[in-house]
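Following up on my earlier thread - several people asked me to post the actual chain instead of describing it. Fair enough. Here it is, all 352 residues.
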Amino acid sequence: MSRSILPDPSITVEAIVADVRERGDAAVADWSNRLDGTALERPRRAVAYGDLPTEAVLAAARNVRTWHAAQRPHDLVLEVSPGVTLERRWTPLRSVGVYVPTGLVSSLVMTVVPAQEAGVERVVVCTPPRGAATVAAAAALLGVDEVWAIGGAQAIAAMAYGTESIAPVDKIVGPGGGAVNAAKLLVSRDVAIDLPAGPSEVVVVADEGFDRAIIDQELAAQLEHGPDSRGHVVWVGDDLDAALEQVEAHAAEHVALLGPRAESLAGRIRNAGAVFVGPFAPVPAGDYATGGNHVLPTGGWARSTGGLGLESFMKCVTVQRVTEEGLARLAPTIEALAELEGLEAHKRTARR
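Reply from S.P.:
Thanks for posting it. Predicted structure:
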């Protein structure tokens, strides 16, 4: 939300979000005109256009669908004590907003396909005007037709609060730059978000003496995302625990393990978005093709959260059933704790 993440230092993300929330379509158009060089009176849908590597897009989507379908959580029903039965039931979100950075068809696949597999009824995509035609063409391949040529903080605000043209969503997902991530954090007080997926980062963990050319490949692949991307190398010598400690301290988006000793750490790493094991598992394989999700925590968030999965597009509802006999067994506990907390009305519900 700092001024430095926008091209004009007189503008703040807070101002954009507040304006869109108040003025809707007109504000979205004004900010798009000012920041993206459009000439609009209201938001417009992206028009699908351009050649795509259709088979590659569909192959990536198949692998993403296969992997995420296997993640479906199971409903749970349990009688925790006689007459007291609890149920945990998973249900898809009704609507999800997806932010796709300029031209990143792979990010579209990583967000839209799991949402579809979860059973989300409405998926709306926002992507900057430059490159929107390509994203819309890929979305059409995936069966998504609500694609808006809107980028930046104004897109996040439009999906969060709705405008005359765009109905609000229940959750916003997808990676983005500084303004997008700041806007996501700002609107998260009112609508759920996945995580602030920021500048790309990789930690390459390599045995001493490992082929430097492969290490450099991994670093270059991440650093080409932009000038704020980060890459680090951790060398593995005799002290495996010391190497692991360094990896955990970085809590990086991507960790690449190269060499037998480095690869032996795979099962011990706790703080990472995704771990890639061995010289034939380059990080870009996960970016594009393996089916694993590439929307991952950055900036140390891997200490507390993982990347997108099927559950990111679902929520659980707890159903509680209590019989007369069950309530009689629970009554002493209800009454004692309610009395301790000074809640007399709670206490009275224990006797029907």
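DSSP finds 13 helices and twelve strands in the chain. That should answer part of your original question.
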